[in-house]
């Protein structure tokens, strides 16, 4: 069997046709006079009206005549065809456009992920969203960093804590690198979520209140940091070096699972002493 590479123009045309034909006109409240149909689904003119584009444009797309719809048109077609999130992402990929995040940023952990964070003990683990809000954590992470339960929800943000909490200013051995990489990740999230006012407010507050943040933000470094190493000065057990891994769940892509593992035996011993406290 020979597998060909994807002809995105023809696949886009076929995908739009099949999605249109599977729709039930009754779900759209169409007048009864329109419901004696020789073909299944909605008509092209109905999809065009729902998406706010011309009938000729829909016809040319479905005929695979080389059009490359804009991101706005792809979004309008996704709504008109009532695509699922996975289908919407597929349509954007076929059109070679980058979708904006249509969902609101996560402000609470998905319950299965919160359980996973707890189940990862004795490894320190926590769940964050794209703006570094800490949504869930296990006891090991709280003993290592901070007792998040004692903080008001608006302060449970990894960047805010690193910059604003006095006890965190000397916590990281290589503080400037940690802050620099965090800001580079935050800038990438800012570009991907331009309508997230809470993220914009966080950046503005940090830039006003912390000169180091303002200086590094102005450098416009971009880096999505999925794994690496950190060394921390814990007030009770001394220096702990960890490898960290950041995982993004397929079902909840705005939530990021962060897991720490000790770099060496000395750090593991320190984590063990923390766990038994």
TrEMBL record:
InterPro entries, per database record: Cro/C1-type_HTH, Lambda_DNA-bd_dom_sf, MLTR_LBD
Pfam families associated with the record: HTH_31 (PF13560), MLTR_LBD (PF17765)
Regions that span the bilayer: none
Every HTH cro/C1-type domain range: 34-88
Domain of life: Bacteria
Name the record gives this protein: Helix-turn-helix transcriptional regulator
Organism (species): Streptomyces rectiviolaceus
